[in-house]
Design goal:
Helix 3 links the parallel strand 4 and strand 5. The protein has 177 residues and is α/β, with parallel strands linked by helices. The chain is globular, with a radius of gyration of 15 Å.
């Protein structure tokens, strides 16, 4: 079991790797399918994990990960604890614009089990953007897929003149207004 590091492998030409980490594999699969259906000018590979660390036996074969999206279900405290435990296996340099938190289930805030202060604390401690969505609704799932795809394109270095760190600082600034 090893810590994920963003720059320990060379990037593949005109491609990007997204890692979705969360306890609801069904929603991960739906989001991955929505992302793959979107029009894009680069090759995309999406990996799904319920938690970190990733198994170390295939580490030498694993491609460089460009963006990690931690999925937190607002209705499940287990989901939040799972993400918090997984964060220990991510190298600090990943938090320079290559991590985001995706909070799902926000359409049903009356069933909320996770305190919003815990979400804001993750954003502050890890200096990473938080995206709120309802992945059960097709339209919002498509919009979320488009946002993640654009973030992934930036994090993979496929947009000239825009770095993941710069983009991350823009996202965190916009959340403060």
């Amino acid at each position: 079991m090893s810590v994920l590091r963003p720059f320990d492998k060379l990037p593949a030409l005109n491609s990007a790797i997204l890692l979705l980490v969360g306890s609801d594999e069904g929603l991960q699969q739906k989001l991955a399918e929505a992302i793959l259906r979107e029009k894009k000018s680069f090759k995309i590979n999406i990996r799904i994990a319920t938690s970190l660390p990733l198994p170390s036996e295939g580490d030498h074969l694993r491609p460089r990960i460009d963006l990690i999206a931690f999925m937190i279900d607002i209705k499940s405290k287990y989901s939040l604890r799972n993400v918090e435990a997984s964060l220990a296996y991510v190298d600090a340099s990943f938090f320079l614009g290559k991590v985001c938190f995706l909070v799902t289930g926000v359409g049903r805030l009356n069933c909320c089990s996770v305190e919003m202060s815990a979400i804001w604390k993750l954003r502050e401690v890890y200096s990473s953007p938080v995206l709120f969505c309802e992945l059960e609704l097709e339209g919002i799932r498509v919009a979320t897929a488009q946002r993640l795809l654009r973030m992934l394109e930036i994090c993979a270095g496929l947009i000239p003149g825009v770095s993941a760190l710069y983009f991350g600082s823009l996202m965190s600034r916009s959340a403060n207004f």
